[in-house]
Amino acid sequence: MVPSCNQAHWKSDIEKFNTDTSISDAKITTVYSYGGDVEFWPKKEDPQACWAPAKDTCNFTSYYDPINKKAADTYSNAAGVSQIVALLDARLDGWNMITQYDNNDACNFGDFYPNLNNLTEPQLGQLAKQTASLFCEDDNLSGVQIDLEPYQDPYKEHLEMFVKAMATEMKDDTGANGCKDAMHPGGRTTSYFTFAHRTRPTFNKEIMGDNGYFVFSGYDLNPKNLAFEYNNVTEFGNNLKSEIPEIRKAISDGKAKFTMAVPIAASCHEYEHYVPMHGDGCGPACQPWDSGVKMSAYVQELFDIITAKENVDLFTVKEGGQFIGLSFWVWTYDMTYPPMKWFNNLFLPATPSDDVLTILKKELPKLDGK
């Protein structure tokens, strides 16, 4: 994933990687560029309008930032890049996170976070249609990745309703949403970021539709606590090994397409350094951590596992296959968490090192089934 800020700089870095054939011709062909989020806003005269069940005076909507739209246009012209996918982001439990992290509601927004449980099924359908129509106005986009978290009780049921509605609206059989057009005759894709161990085998058939695919997380697995304590390289590898059978179960229908998201820069539990913010906001995570290893060690461990003999069948890109490549986290200017913009708990590094990019050039061709 790459961010909306500094897009010219990141475009240059991607082009440099894609055009460098000194080791291999491996390329980054899809850019996941930040698009926007889902927001609930009640009218002033009815501040509880978005409480369950939400009233008509609740403005539940998705937002596509104009700056992010410009970023998508910039990345679409990068050498070697064939498609742009916009990320749709939100925490369904955002208010709970604020209370955990020192009740730090810095912008005094109150509970504006989009708990989809507050919407009825027809309202979720309206939100999906609005979201699809909004993002499909941008011809640069091949699809949307839904990164609404967490996929766990009590949010699972309504989150599934929304993902299913999004898959239908983005495929857009009638063309009513502008997703199906001359440039995109099959409509647009809906990808869904989640954990395989939380995904039942029938999810693809019941929810994802013909144009859907999974992005299974290969990082931040089995976190130790809320304090962002790191997983060392061995722990990272063991967590990934334990997750691979869950991926097999989740795609056992034989039809589900998937990528696996892997860390090439810092995640919340695989990193070089964690630097908590000063003042209110670090909550239960005010202790800094230094993992003592470079991100390149995590990346090499990753490839050692997925290219092992017992996993070659799962992680090979081939015609008609289910695996469609790796998704890389992250290539950005500032990796922080919680995701609200006023938090500043830093995870470093935020961009892949030259050593990491060299490993990618060396190892990625091993996943090519040609």
Secondary-structure topology with pairs:
Blueprint: H1 7-19, E1 30-42, E2 58-64, H2 66-76, E3 83-91, H3 94-100, H4 121-136, E4 141-149, H5 156-171, E5 189-194, H6 203-208, E6 212-217, H7 233-250, E7 258-263, E8 273-275, E9 289-290, H8 295-306, E10 323-329, E11 346-348, H9 354-363
Parallel strand pairs: 1-3, 3-4, 4-5, 5-6, 6-7, 7-10
Antiparallel strand pairs: 1-2, 8-9, 8-11
Helix pairs in contact: 4-5, 7-8, 8-9
Key attributes of the depicted protein:
three-stranded antiparallel β-sheet, eight-stranded mixed β-sheet, TIM Barrel
CATH class: Alpha Beta
Give the low-pLDDT segments: none
* Number of alpha- plus pi-helical segments: 9
Strand order of the largest sheet: 2-1-3-4-5-6-7-10
In total, the number of domains comes to 1
Helix share of residues?
25-40%
Q: Main β-sheet, in a few words?
A: 8 strands, mixed
CATH-assigned fold name = TIM Barrel
For the record, the CATH architecture stands as Alpha-Beta Barrel
N-to-C SSE series? HEEHEHHEHEHEHEEEHEEH
Q: How far do the termini sit from each other?
A: 26 Å
Structural class: alpha/beta
Percent in strands = 15-25%
The average pLDDT value, as a whole number, equals: 94
Give the CA-based shape.
Answer: globular
Topology, number of strands: 11
Q: Mind telling me the C-alpha Rg?
A: 20 Å
Kindly describe this structure.
The protein has 370 residues and is an alpha/beta fold. It has one domain (7-367): TIM Barrel (Alpha-Beta Barrel), CATH 3.20.20. 29% of the residues lie in helices and 19% in strands. The chain has nine helices and eleven strands. The strands form two sheets. An eight-stranded mixed beta sheet has the order 2-1-3-4-5-6-7-10. The chain has a three-stranded antiparallel beta sheet with strand order 9-8-11, with no helix packed on it. Helix 4 (121-136) packs across helix 5 (156-171), helix 7 (233-250) packs parallel to helix 8 (295-306) and helix 8 packs parallel to helix 9. It is globular and about 60 Å long. The model has no long low-confidence stretch (mean pLDDT 94).
